Amino acid sequence: MGMKTKELTLLAGSEETRRTLDNQLNEIIGDFIRIRSYSVDAHKVTKVHNQLIILSSHLIEEEAKDYIGDNCTVLVARRIVNFLNIDKIYSVARGEKVLYVNDFPETVQEAISSFEILGINHLQLIPYFPGKKQKEQIKIAITPGELDLVPPYVEEVINIGPRLIDITTIITILNRLGLLEEKQDQVSSKYISTITRLSKRLGDANQEANKISDHLKKVVNGVNDGILAINQLGRITVFNEILERFLRIPMKKAIDRHVRDVISDRTLYDFIMNKREEEADGYFTINSMNFMVHRFMIDPQGTVVVTFKDASETIEMEKQLKRELVKKGFYGKYHFEDIVGNHPELLSTKEIARKLAKTELTILIQGESGTGKELFASSIHYASPRSNGPFLAVNFSALPEDLVESELFGYEEGAFSGAKKGGRKGLFEQANGGTIFLDEIGDISLKVQARLLRVLQEKELLRIGGNKIIPVDVRVVAATNKDLLSLMEEGKFREDLYHRLKVLFLQLPALRKRKEDIAHLIHHFIQQSDQPSIKLEVEVLERLKHYNWYGNIRELKNTLDYMLAVCEENTIKVEDIPNEGFFQQARKSMKEVAVTLESAELPYIQQDLNEELSNLVEIIYQLQRTGETVSRVKISEVTRSGGRFLTEQQVRSRLETLEKMGLVEKKRGRQGTKLTVFGEKTFHMKKRQ
Length: 689
Ligand SMILES: Nc1ncnc2c1ncn2[C@@H]1O[C@H](COP(=O)(O)OP(=O)(O)OP(=O)(O)O)[C@@H](O)[C@H]1O
Known about the structure:
This protein is an alpha/beta fold. The protein contains 25 helices and 26 strands. A hairpin with a 5-residue loop joins strand 11 and strand 12. The longest helix is centred in the first third of the chain and has 29 residues, at 180-208. It is globular and about 85 Å long. The protein binds adenosine-5'-triphosphate. Adenosine-5'-triphosphate binds next to helix 12, helix 18 and helix 20. It comes from Sutcliffiella horikoshii.
């Protein structure tokens, strides 16, 4: 690397900050700039002369004065939150109030908005900085290394480590030292590679919390990929480690070179350099590995980014997605107070459940679908001595059979092909110290039943492919809407397991047995909706009381959502009630409906499409046929010329309803709205009538 003739001095407020920033700078520009650093609270004062001096914050300007000698340029670094430690934030429970502590109002605000942008929104962050009046004494604080600024009443401090220097400051440094021209590409690719590493961490943490935006998912998946960026001159500016491995070309031999000198595969080269299309996907075999290659432009000047995804990994990712299903309800934090209703049977069930909660025993909850089994399970957990432990809800009907076992009990490395290195904890281990809610227990296979029985009896488990006995301390609450006794008769459910589960028993009343509660529930759901001031015609309530509500409270909620979407003038009227066919049929005939749906004889939803909605379906169908993008604006335009005119806003709410009914789906970007297969069938049926 030759002699380092350029130098800079970093002055930080604390030793921790000094170490972090010194590391960061060395990683990015240490190759060609000598970096000295001091922290004003730990080092003896040494005056420096003829130097570029970087201050970690405006706050240390005063103390820094003693260090600054003759002929120095002083620069205060701009800093961004260090996302490497972001997973710590996820240890705080959802919805918790947390102080975000930093030196200035601006830096606090900046950090809070970057959290938002990144989809980290599970906490209520309250800004805090020196001098801020803060009445409420919050118990938890997050701070980027500013431990001294945390107010004394805080009991738990989460230190996410000092913020890092942002790219603009690094560019300024290069500029001041006259290195910008020569080093900018190299530096920006290094900066990007550190940031992508951060994004990956961020992604993992996010995934953990199962709270990950679509956008971020792309970033996360992105960092397992090879990434190549090319500037408008065709020179490579980013070439990450994964890509080194994939293409078997060292980064050193790629950065700064022209693509044509690096990528020897002719078709791949053509694919990358084809700028006629903004975006393209291709499938390539390189060094006998298969890749999905995606190319897109990130700015009008023509910076091209190409990602390389290992095709075999894509399959693994799909599996991962399925796993996410299980974790739903990680945060289902219902309490008994959330269970609405005054019917004596509900009240006494709640009373019993409260008592059962205090015990350690296994509970079986029986109730039709939508009666609130999960609600009860969660309330029981939070009213139990385990309320500080985790509550995990597993829905077996949502899980592919072959995943159930490894999900529940975990596996050891090498248990099967595709098993992760180091093995994986199952949900039972993850729920340790807490409660696991096993929904639709009637759906599990006999094999899983046998394992489950062992856990209940022995309070210990073996991972799949493992031989180490792992003790588990988990309370089980199971639920079913099936008749387990008849499953037992058919030999599909083990009798011994049944008795283990049913140590304590709760039967949840169906909604049709407590119709008095319908009014309460409706009131409650309206309060929770985004239109809390909506009124209900008296007649509506009377009508609603006449239904059988086979889908129970969930169905009532769906019905209300429908009515909220179609109603006008802030009032739900009788005509807003969906037609009879919208409602769930009794259990037996539900099966028949499913069969009819499959054979596409008579989709049951179509009859209750009111005229307006079915016109809308027709408009979408016609637009789709002409190959036009079906946007809300376009639909609104069409309604202007015939029938009843709908504003864009009205179109939106109706589309949402159609989407809920499964008739249309929203596609991203240019494709707009589309009829689903089901929607098309419904359209044709309607035409034939
Ligand atoms: N008594 C109640 N008060 C308020 N909301 C309720 C009540 N009962 C159920 N709900 C709501 O109804 C919906 C369905 O409840 P939940 O998921 O607990 O039912 P479930 O019996 O577990 O259904 P399934 O067996 O189909 O999974 C949820 O949105 C829940 O919040």
